[in-house]
Amino acid sequence: MANKVKFERENVIRVASQLFWEKGFIATSTRDLQEAINMRPGSIYAAFGSKEGLYSESLKDYTVQMKSQIDGFLASSDTVVGGLRAFVENVIIKTKDCSPSAICMLVKANSEFAEKDASLYELSLDLSAKFEAYLTTLFAQAIKNNELSSNLTALEYAQFFQVQFTGLRGYFNRPRVEQLAQPMINQMFALIKKL
Amino acid sequence: MANKVKFERENVIRVASQLFWEKGFIATSTRDLQEAINMRPGSIYAAFGSKEGLYSESLKDYTVQMKSQIDGFLASSDTVVGGLRAFVENVIIKTKDCSPSAICMLVKANSEFAEKDASLYELSLDLSAKFEAYLTTLFAQAIKNNELSSNLTALEYAQFFQVQFTGLRGYFNRPRVEQLAQPMINQMFALIKKL
DNA sequence: TTTGATTTTGAGCGACTGTTCAAGTTAAAA
DNA sequence: TTTTAACTTGAACAGTCGCTCAAAATCAAA
Prior knowledge:
2 copies of one chain form a homodimer.
Chain A: H1 9-23, H2 30-37, H3 41-48, H4 51-75, H5 80-94, H6 105-112, H7 119-144, H8 154-171, H9 181-194
Helix pairs in contact in A: 1-2, 1-4, 4-5, 4-7, 5-9, 6-7, 7-8, 8-9
Chain B binds a DNA duplex through helix 3.
């Protein structure tokens, strides 16, 4: 009995995610989405309930992708800090031009849904908190490995990392000579080791 | 002969600026604006040409306000770095709750107008460049006064400042115990003096 | 007071928005 | 092959968007 679904859910979410990341939630119309993911309104609403539902899935998927990207760099690096550094270089320098936006999708979400009661605002806060917790475990490992001093707690290192990383991405959102990026990343990691 | 304009142009722009800063360009409807600035469509379009025209004026006014705010703190401080510090503390801690957004309006604009040919994108880039140039003159003065070493150029200090400041504002956009803000600002300025 | 250029008003235009749903299509079960 | 539940389609809805413009209101000059 029944028919099978034609679309591949994961792939659809990933494509939608790119579009939402680039244009933001409000500026992405359902017609834009229809074309990008090749689905008609009825199917989209049957599968995701609403534009908000699809965005919600997209934002969650984004954080999963980010974490798995970091895990990949950690796996091919001797140290935790080295892995994070490779990740930062990859985001700011190497994948800058093929990325929908220089700015983290979570940061964009946090600034778009400023109205404090919206459910997408709650979601973006929740995902941000979980990402910080994930980073904290990484820095805890780095301290344990004696890569970093224990002058700061793992959480404080994670906070410092986020401030630096967000700041750099915001700065290199504006077009600049890319020669500036590498020295500023070097500076960031030199500072981390001196904290 | 003729009639006089009823509205005060500067005041109208300032109110519109607050609304645009909070909600973004796209999410702010012309009806929202009509209510906020108490003008009917015909008057708005006679005075500013379009929604884009009013936003453009609002963004320019925002940077003027920021600069004059910094100048104010500089005037009541012994040192350039002290003035900048007072400014940062004012933005992140003191005026956090009465500000339309924790995130700089220019940064929001830069991330909203990602399509590279739009005129508002060009404007936000131009204003960002001018603001960086302004900061650079301040740091040049700080170096001249021996407040800061000359290991870095004035431009490099300005870049560092912007990365830190943008990063901190992005971080404290998410709700957190405000006790975290002051130590992180202290850290920022401790780092600047050690560069 | 009359004149007439200027400003303000707000109903309304065409385009676009997120979403719905009846009709059509599909394929596993009978 | 027939049945039937699940899935897909796309026309269409009610609402909102940025914006226009004829008409009303305003006030300095004559």
